[in-house]
Design a protein that fits this description.
heterodimer; A: mainly alpha; B: alpha+beta
Amino acid sequence: MKKNIEEFETIYHANYEIISKHVLIKTSNVNDAQDIVQDVFYDFYKHWLKSEKAIEYPSAYLKQIANHHLSSYYHQKSHEDSSQFEDTNLNQIADLHNIENEVIDELTLDLIFNEINLLKEPDKSILVARYRFDMTFKEIAEQFNIAESTIKSIVQRNLLKLKEKFSSKSY
Amino acid sequence: MKRKNYQFFNEEETLKSLYKRAHHEGLSLDSRKEEHFMKKSWLKMGAVLALAASFVFAYTQLNPQITENEGIVEVISEKAVVAYISIDINPSFELAVCNDDTVKSIEQLNDDALSIDVSDLIGMDVDLAIEAIVARATEAGFIDLEDTVEDYVVITSVMEDGISEQIELQLRTKIEERLQISETLSSVKVVSIKADMVAKFEAEEKEVPVGLYVINGGIAQEDGTYLSVKEVFANENSVNELKNTYQINITELSLEQLTLTLQNWLEQLEAAGVDVSSYEAQMIDADINELVTLHDTLKETYTDLLSDSQLNQSENANPEGEKPEDAGNSSENAGQSEAGSSQSSGSGKKN
């Protein structure tokens, strides 16, 4: 069967977001997740090249390739204790929505992501999940198995740092 | 915030890196053309051999035979296999299904499955075969009739590549209709999953039933084993993830079945002298969710209620504190009839 690269790219673009999100959630590490996503799609590409017939369920197949890579990843990494998170003060979370809007309106996306890139895990993964994949706080809490209030606290703390940092600069 | 050029998980950059890597490793669409031309000369020779083989094949198909090797029962016929239906309870079976929705072969995938005779199900309509297997697993004790709330039967369907949607729909409809009308199948929760040949091949490589492989997300535990059906479905997060990944449908127990289970327990409690009037009152006009809540409550307290009742009875019978020989025997009996004790080895229930 004649292969058309557009067919592969259609599958790639249709599944990139969901696979990336899945891998990020499972690894809680942006850098590792990006590497794994690259490997997943590369393995899929090799399979697609060699396959004589059309791949009937590419999404499910991609998910399985991802899970294989994650399985190997888990064997190499130890699970982080979620008790590393500080206790949250719910009163501080009240203005999170306003702070988010303020920061996002005032700063460019590139600036925000540049700053996120400097963060340590798990803050980095949580903010990427929020601002790259547009996940709700509830979704992030469920997927990362962390209390929603903790997620909000982490996001708020980092946004406030951003706000403070750029309020004294011109951009 | 939707755009393609994020700093993190940049779609375009990842694609460029992929092509660079492929080029570096010598993989490209052009290299495949060489492989294709090399295959052509072999195709001519293959065609001649195929013609000769087809005469032999046609002759043998006029005389269908039933063969039986350990764990695989099948009939050799001209009917093509269009799908594989995996039934995981534990035990686990895989049915090869023909284009007329009849069973061509059944593979018994573990030792527990070997203990159940399925030879008479060959040639039967697949929906009836599924029903029969579940019924026989129940008789053998693998499904606890006294409490089926936590019992799941996973039915995984895998269509052969290239099968038309019409055939797939026909098969699926047949099975779904049987799930609705069968008393046996409505006594347990049935999980229907659609998987593909890739999952089937991977499961075979790992020597795991495809249904079990799929519900574990293809990931084994640290010791190399896979979570059982019951263990997977006891975890709500696992269930949600399955729903997000596969086309999955879970039937619920009927109101009648749940009511029957609860009535059975209350009868046993009443016979032991426990006042069950409050529980009976809760059952009146209760909907399925309320019954499930009552089921869970009763399951937790069943043993305590029984023990308290028997203790009270023995105190009343021996007011001066003499050693209650009968109470000891009653406690033993209570342990044997404990509600929800689906783990009891005596009944042969496995996970």
